[in-house]
């Protein structure tokens, strides 16, 4: 029985097909390396929040200022509507007091994140040292 060799390369003609498998492998490795090396794009306002300490809080409670951000886009300083410029002025004045009053930030659950972010940026620029987020139990329904 004789075998037919229809696809044999016995002739002197060069092979005209290119093996693309190694090229594809190299490209996939380069794409994976590119994806790994690109840092994720995040937007954050960095705040230095106080760390949990072992010492109990002082018995005398300092003055507290409450900052509320409403769903309608209003900023309330102790119940009074203010602008971002007025807020910066109030924060600068409060940081000069002795003892420095605490700032309680309470955004409503459906407040715009953009406005909350702007308020956090203003508090960071004013170098607020005593700040806390209150009313987080409102977010337990999400």
Written overview of the protein:
It is a single chain. With 142 residues, the protein is an alpha/beta fold. It has a domain at 64-141: 2-Layer Sandwich (Nucleotidyltransferase, domain 5), CATH 3.30.420. The chain has helices spanning 21-37, 84-95, 113-125, and strands spanning 64-69, 75-77, 80-82, 102-107, 131-133. A 5-stranded mixed beta sheet has the order 3-2-1-4-5. Strand 2 (75-77) and strand 3 form a beta hairpin. The longest helix is centred in the N-terminal third of the chain and has 17 residues, at 21-37. Mean pLDDT is 81; it is low at 57-61.
The radius of gyration over CA amounts to: 32 Å
> How many strands appear in the DSSP assignment?
5
Largest sheet: 5 strands, mixed
Q: Outline the low-pLDDT stretches.
A: 57-61
Largest sheet, spatial ordering of strands: 3-2-1-4-5
Nearest-integer average pLDDT = 81
β-strand percent reads 5-15%
N-to-C span? 78 Å
